[in-house]
């Protein structure tokens, strides 16, 4: 009896992600490789294929290459890469590509992040749905038809080029000496950090890198490569304090996000990092003659971010959460930079794509060009008090939202519906956003206020309505 394939469990809004051997197999990947060529019309073109340190990534890369070459594309295998290395290669070589990664997900997962030439993302709105449908057809008929010409397979190493390119964007050679603890979480930061910040490929910088979990190991023996969870930052925080380092940096599994720890072991919020990098990118753009550089921020970043952008003569543009939206708005607006509360940072100079390493370099440059500690520097960018994301699991999300709207949607409060509901006090003392999860029965609360007591009172009042 023939199998019937339904790939909806692994095809998400922005990428493909599933459990190895179940919802993602070599057979499935080969069909996706063929469908990728057909949907993006890449017969005769070059496709870049790489993967992270997960044990299944090499075999999946080869399976994708088999499917793609059968449909007439030429494949260049990049072997071990971080996700932002794929974007670098796609941008410089103007070629479509895929990297096999499940980012911060546990060891049993793997997946695919795809892009068109120039690192333009492939999402459910820009081809992923059609790729899924065609791959299912190939799987259910049991045949991938051969193109007139079978494509070729070659190999290329892009690590040195990636490192040189990033160093050309941020010059750290004049920094004061800094001790930097980097927690790669056994992910791809263990390969890219020595190449970019160390001296394994390029000249030495005034940085003393203290490595934490640089061994590439997709079983994640030390802790999950998900720095968004506070418990996964504890080893880094302890190492920063014990080694008397100036800064700590943590990367997620595919190293497209970075998280920052100050010299006291305290996290620096992604909003503060967004503001810090925005300042540098605005000043640089203005020096190049751009009169009002655009910076993108999603609606959950601190209000301090748009305030700083305006103060510096830039133009803030607020967008909904999600990297496909940010990248699209970056391109539409010609923005120089974009930041999200989830520690994704996007750069015009990096094909509007997100890169954790480039963001980390900007923070190092900002720290290294002034004499004070990071805690003092970060405080300049964190004038408000934030709740962080608070999730409530609910039977009836719409009813909870309606209760909050009735309680707070009155005189003196402005409500907007860009992404969920955002309530803002007209006197500027607080704001909060409620967003329903796309995939789970959760309602997510993010709040910010001018002082801690106002924030605590606000959070209690909102959760009382949400959870009653």
Automatic annotation (TrEMBL):
InterPro entries: A-D-PHexomutase_a/b/a-I, A-D-PHexomutase_a/b/a-I/II/III, A-D-PHexomutase_a/b/a-II, A-D-PHexomutase_a/b/a-III, A-D-PHexomutase_C, A-D-PHexomutase_C_sf, Alpha-D-phosphohexomutase_SF. It holds the Pfam family PGM_PMM_I. The keyword Metal-binding applies. Keywords: Isomerase, Magnesium, Metal-binding, Phosphoprotein. Residues 389-463 form the Alpha-D-phosphohexomutase C-terminal domain. It comes from the Bacteria. Residues 10-134, 162-265, 281-384 form the Alpha-D-phosphohexomutase alpha/beta/alpha domain. Its cofactor is Mg(2+). PANTHER family: PHOSPHOMANNOMUTASE (PTHR43771:SF1). Belongs to the phosphohexose mutase family. This is Phosphomannomutase/phosphoglucomutase. It comes from Arthrobacter flavus. The lineage of its organism: Bacteria, Bacillati, Actinomycetota, Actinomycetes, Micrococcales.
